[in-house]
Each structure stands twice: as C-alpha cells, then as structure tokens.
Amino acid sequence: MSMEIAIHRSLEHRHVVGFRGFFEDSNFVFVVLELCRRRSLLELHKRRKALTEPEARYYLRQIILGCQYLHTNRVIHRDLKLGNLFLNDDMEVKIGDFGLATKVEYDGERKKTLCGTPNYIAPEVLGKKGHSFEVDVWSIGCIMYTLLVGKPPFETSCLKATYIRIKNNDYSIPTHINPIAASLIQKMLRSDPAARPTIDELLSDEFFTTGYIPSRLPTTCLTVPPRFSVAPNGVEASGRTPLSVVNRGPESPALDKVPEKEEEVAICNPSEPVDYHLADLLQQLTLVNASKPSERVPVRQEEAEDPACIPIFWVSKWVDYSDKYGLGYQLCDNSVGVLFNDSTRLIMYNDGDKLQYIKENGSESYFNVRSYPDAFNKKVTLLEYFRNYMNKHLLKAGADINPREGDELARLPYLLTWFRTRSAIILHLSNGTVQINFFQDHTKVILCPFMAAITYINEKREFCTYKLALLEEFGCCTELASRLRYARTMVEKLLSYKSDAACVKPSG
Prior knowledge:
The chain has 13 helices and 19 strands. It folds into two domains: about 1-215, Transferase(Phosphotransferase), domain 1 (Orthogonal Bundle); about 265-495, POLO box domain (Arylsulfatase, C-terminal domain, 2-Layer Sandwich), CATH 3.30.1120.30. By secondary structure, it is α+β, with helices and mostly antiparallel strands. Helix 10 (about 275-290) runs antiparallel to helix 13. It has a seven-stranded antiparallel β-sheet. Strands 8-9-10-11-12-13 form a six-stranded antiparallel β-sheet, with helices on one face. The chain has a two-stranded antiparallel sheet with strand order 1-2.
C-alpha cells in the first residue's frame, strides 16, 4: 500500500486519476482520489459491448497519453484494464488503481513479479522472464481488441486455458474489424516484447492518423452509439443503422399472444422488433425470485447496493394521450419524446432545439426546431404540447441525478414499447432498459439487463441501485421482493406479445 501511495501521489496528469491525500486508523488506510462519476470503461463495455471506431480512438488516445506520462516518469502500471480506466463527467479517461504499479530504478531493469489481470496479462509476465514498459503496451492491445470486438482476445471460461492461449499467442480478429485497426492490435500483441511498438510510437500509427477522433463524447455514449454522420446542415446522413438494429443482436423470442386477463388495458407499438436482452432480463429476474430474497435471515439489502450500475437514462415523466395521439415522456436529462399511435417517434433534445425522428421501420432523421419539413408540423406541435404539459404539471422522478447536457454527437434511447395494467405502466426503452412505475404508491423500478441490476425509487423518492445477483445472496425487504416478482411477470409479458400485432386497446 505504501508503494501505491508513493507512486500515485507523485503523479499529476489530465488522464491519471487525481491523488488528493490519504489518512489511516488502526485498521485501514483511506486514500482520497478524484471523483470519476461516470464510473469506468468496464461499465461502458457491459452496456455497449463493441464500440464504434471513432469512440475506440477517442478512449485509446487518452489511455496512451496517460500511459506516455507514466512511462516518462519511469512508472509501469502493470494492470491496465477496462475496470481501471475511469471516466469523469466530461467523458475523459483517467488511469487509476496503482496497486500493482512499479517504478523502474535504472535503465534496462526487468521486473520479475507475477502480477496483472488474466485477460490483459502479457506473456513475459507469465513466463517470469522479466518484464518492463512493454507489458502496458500489450494491455492496451487487449483493451483495443475488447473495445472493437466486444470481448477480450484471450478470454476463456478457464483461467488455465486463458494463460495457455496467451503463451501461445492464440487469438483471432473477426473479419469485420477494419484491417488498419487489426494491424495495430497485432503489433501490440506480439509475443516478443521487443517487437512491440513503444508507447510513444502508438499515436503515429495509421489507425490514429487516418481515422476520425471526436474531440469529445456525450454521456449518451454510455448506453447508445453516438451519431457521427451529421451533415453541415445538421441533418443526419442517410444509410446509417437504426438504433434498434444496433441493439438487437440475434433474433429473439417474438411477441406471440395478446393478454387475456382483465388487468391488461393497453399495449402500444408492438411492431418494433423486440430487444433480445429482454430474454436475458427475464432469466436474471427468474433467478433472483427463485432465491426468495425476502426470506433471508437476516436480510442485508444494503450489501447488494452497487452505485456503478446506476442507470444512465430512465423516464422521469410521462403522460398518456394514446386515445388520440400517443404517449409523451421525458427522460431524466430533460429531453422529451412522443411515441405516436402510428408507431413513429419524435424526440426533442434537452437543448430544446435538436429533433430526432424515428420512422416505423426504425430509420432515424435529425432536424432542429428552426428548420424541419412541413410534414412534421403537427407532430412537432404535439411534442411541444406534451413538453409544456409535463413541465407545468408533473413531478420528475430521480430529479437529483442527471446526465450532463448533450452535444452534436448525442443519440438518445427512445421509447420502444409500453403497456399499462391496473397497477402500473411498463416502459421499454431502445437501450434495453425496462421501467415500471406503480400507480398507487408512486414507487418505480428501473431494470438494466446489461448491468443485471435494478434501481428502486421508493415512496420517499429515495434512489438505490442493486445487483440482482447480490440480492440473491443478501436478500431484500418484502416491498422490493414483491416488485421483483411483478417485474418478472411484466418482462414475460413483453416477450409474449407478437411483434407484428396491432395496438391492443381495452375492450371497455
């Protein structure tokens, strides 16, 4: 611990987590560090899997700049991985966790300690032949592969097998990866550390010099891809992939039946293809409910809290006018949207200017309130009506947790589908989030299949996020347990409706 503190406190760089001080008592040492509110690239990876190339360049450039600073100061990090690369409010990378870091005392010194994280550990570390700065370059190669492909290059279900693959340099790059990107990955993942590029050579590689690197990224990137194909007039260029397709993945169970119980009173927009992560969410909820979490003795619900899993977006307000026009809603960043009865959607960003229009087939267009086609007049007027109504008459759910304002690259999740029961409204967003707002006590649950987590907003409007697997282990109160059971039933219903069914309305 003393080595970690000594190294970290000596560092000061834009892309290194700031060291603020430390103190200790008889049992613990407490280290005070810069707050990185957007968590780490690990949470981003869990939500997004593979990233776009410009995003990968953006993050990798900052990682390399931070690592250049470390190497200039003769520090080897030795544990570069997604979980140690943190993000601040401005979506800037900060290298942290210097628990395995070491300082090179003289030129040519080779360290012999076996340390690192299995998926990112260099072969010379495993071989105990001595290692130096090159191990960080290897780790960056693994990080680049993970960002672009969606999983680490040597990952297996068995630690021993992973180490064998690393020693044998046994990995493959999918054919859809840009050859220029693949070439840089191969250079960094050479078995011979002397054959790898140095940290100072990386940014001069063709991957960085010929490809677009955004100067900043919006927080929307934490859950959905950004949009890079914006023409000078602000209109989205054609030929891009709809968000529903980006998120869809393999085909999933179709919605194949209409509710029969009296409780179901409306299902809207089932024509959108179902996000396959609903099946993952159903499995997660089935497991936690099977554990009967409210019967744990004692219940230690607070042990299941995990702030790293806090949702990025949720519905903070909504108004149902589907008998005439559709359902209006506000996201937690103050953007507003309408899912119209014709299955189109219109979103106004939180700046009150940018507009995003999604057709029935999922194709997207971008305009602004100062310039849009005449065909959108009625829908823009209705959106503004919904927006004004919600601002004047409705309270905001989770008002104290807001993303920063978006920018020209922002792309928002939209309301994919929704339905109402006697007890609640169920809202399914295009980023996989399922939200349930209960009518009687105004409590809410927000479910994220990527993070396998549930956020509960109780009657006092208190906001807590829990890992579902930890609720299995530590249990929860009866109130949350009953909502977990209800949530499982509702997710099952989302999966049960036929994707090409018409909007089902109450019979009376």
